Structure to design on (136 residues):
């Protein structure tokens, strides 16, 4: 019920992202926030409450302002949440969700073997949780 209950916080975060400097991540962050806001029930059904990226998202939503590093981390959270929903059986995938995943996979910022927690979750743990990869 996180996304349904925190709709106002998501709206506030979106408003904060649309006002400010011209950071290249802003359009991606705004797209991710809009995805969460448009389909809160779908995200509630797909995202476990103990997902560490959900807890991190909550941290960023509670901050009055985000610096560049925070925005990068927020984008990573959003991408993981979008990926979790995309791998959930029967969940429709919106064009913005596809674009966010494409950015993650093709930007060169992340790689399956880069050793980061976000890449591990994106390419290994989420597919395992969705039953698409065997558990290690």
């Amino acid at each position: 019920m996180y996304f349904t209950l925190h709709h106002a916080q998501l709206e506030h975060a979106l408003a904060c992202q649309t006002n400010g400097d011209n950071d290249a991540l802003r359009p991606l962050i705004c797209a991710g926030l809009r995805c969460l806001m448009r389909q809160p029930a779908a995200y509630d059904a797909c995202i476990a409450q103990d997902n560490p990226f959900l807890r991190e998202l909550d941290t960023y939503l509670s901050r009055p302002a985000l610096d560049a590093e925070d925005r990068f981390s927020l984008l990573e959270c959003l991408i993981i949440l979008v990926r979790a929903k995309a791998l959930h059986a029967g969940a429709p995938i919106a064009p913005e969700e596809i674009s966010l995943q494409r950015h993650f996979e093709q930007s060169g910022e992340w790689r399956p073997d880069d050793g980061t927690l976000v890449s591990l979750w994106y390419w290994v743990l989420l597919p395992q949780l969705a039953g698409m990869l065997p558990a290690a």
About this structure: The longest helix spans residues 68-87. The chain is about 65% helix and 0% strand. The mean pLDDT is 89. The radius of gyration is 14 Å.
